[in-house]
Design a protein that fits this description.
By secondary structure, the protein is mostly helical. It contains 24 helices and four strands.
Length: 432
């Protein structure tokens, strides 16, 4: 693998999608220096700073009273949906604008890992708050992240933590915390789940302010035995017990490998995830990582954001109709930010390669090609007609077209926007 292929592979996986200019700069710097730069969080991110989160009022539904009319409730729910769409559009725009692409994509990883859906939470404020928590702790050690998440208002609502009391423990949050978020199946017992639920009792969410608070009267202060240890554990102590287990570092590292390297090649032996950035470095430095090139199907959000970046499109600058078409495309592809389908998160691999998903990609690719920046089209048309498939490969950071794809692209060389759309749905672009 050449240096250009190596840095292109790294950037495709570590970020949402590099531009040709970014690959040029990485090739000049070399793979080692490029990895160091990616993993070093910049002091300022001008793109992110220029894309601040929207200022949201309190949850409109939380302002209602028992005397509120049916019409008032309908209006409150409509306002909730409007706020959530506003946040979804903001985050997509930030994904495109952020200069620190690794941190932004890592945030999306954690969003899928902790898989909290606005379909149940309903509050844009709570969802933005969770993103802030994941952004604040997502690059560091696992311990502080888990300790923050067991008290995260959106997660508490999502997994019924506010219904968990000393008199009626609810096991949802404790079970998923161990099975899906920290340890994995087989690393705990049913007794651990029951005791963990008791440790998590007492936390409730104020829907009006979006803040989680601890109510001692609802908490079970009694002795608990969890994972072989006894004590009067509360939520924070329980989180500490979980992250101290060797299984936690191994499980989380496996999830990172699955999302960044793919399921085709096993994770290197000894890969551990106690510190996220150290684990990500180990993943991208592993010899096996180079072997994963061309094996990972892009998630729809990754596909869309990468295309937006490479085509010079800012979603916020598009007319409302085109913005809606992009969100409709993600909806048709079954991956809309803030709406994972279940606590298990989104699927992977061939699940994204259905007949219906191809049709949705085709429609969305047409919208993207129509909105492509003039400078992008100029790069294509500057090349001789016969050389435009190669110019397209460079633009979309595709290492090479197969003979079959090149044969499909060549007749479109005289129609740049159709050529762009075809490139975006090609196997070489869809699978990185």
């Amino acid at each position: 693998m050449s240096d250009r292929e190596a840095v292109a592979h790294l950037l495709r996986r570590a970020t949402f999608g590099p531009t040709a200019d970014e690959v040029d700069a990485a090739e000049r710097a070399g793979p080692a220096a490029t990895l160091d730069r990616l993993l070093t969080q910049p002091a300022t991110d001008r793109g992110a700073a220029a894309t601040p989160a929207p200022t949201l009022p309190p949850d409109p539904y939380a302002e209602l009273t028992k005397d509120s009319t049916r019409e008032q409730r309908h209006q409150a729910n409509a306002e909730r949906r409007k706020q959530l769409q506003q946040v979804t559009e903001w985050w997509l725009n930030r994904m495109v604008a952020a200069e620190d692409g690794l941190t932004e994509k890592l945030l999306f990883f954690w969003h899928g890992h902790w898989a909290t859906s606005a379909q149940k939470v309903k509050s844009a404020r709570l969802m933005v708050g969770q993103l802030e928590t994941l952004r604040r702790h997502g690059r560091g050690p696992l311990g502080p992240l888990v300790a923050a998440m067991v008290r995260d208002p959106a997660l508490i609502v999502w997994l019924d933590g506010q219904k968990n009391t000393r008199k009626a423990p609810n096991e949802n949050l404790a079970r998923e915390l161990m099975e899906l978020f920290t340890l994995g199946i087989g690393a705990y017992s049913e007794a651990d789940v029951k005791a963990g639920a008791r440790a998590l009792t007492g936390w409730v969410v104020d829907r009006r302010t979006g803040v989680a608070r601890f109510e001692p009267k609802r908490h079970d202060p009694g002795e608990k035995n969890i994972l072989g240890q006894s004590g009067r554990f509360d939520a924070e102590a329980y989180a500490g017990l979980l992250t101290a287990q060797p299984a936690a570092a191994t499980f989380v590292a496996g999830r990172l490998w699955f999302r960044y390297a793919g399921p085709e090649i096993p994770a290197p032996e000894g890969l551990a995830g106690a510190d996220t950035i150290a684990t990500v470095r180990a993943i991208f430095s592993a010899p096996a990582f180079a072997q994963t090139r061309g094996t990972l199907v892009k998630q729809p959000v990754e596909w869309l954001v990468g295309a937006l970046r490479q085509l010079g499109i800012r979603p916020s600058a598009l007319p409302e109709q085109q913005r809606r078409q992009l969100l409709a495309g993600l909806n048709a592809l079954d991956q809309v930010p803030l709406r994972p389908p279940s606590v298990g998160g989104w699927p992977a691999g061939s699940a994204w390669l259905t007949t219906s998903s191809l049709q949705a990609r085709l429609r969305t690719a047409g919208v993207l090609a129509a909105a492509a920046a003039p400078s992008v089209l100029a790069r294509l048309t500057a090349a001789p007609t016969a050389g435009r498939p190669d110019a397209l490969a460079r633009l979309l950071v595709v290492d090479a077209w197969s003979g079959r794809t090149r044969a499909a692209l060549t007749p479109l060389a005289g129609e740049p926007r159709k050529l762009l759309a075809a490139g975006l749905v090609s196997p070489e672009y869809t699978v990185s």
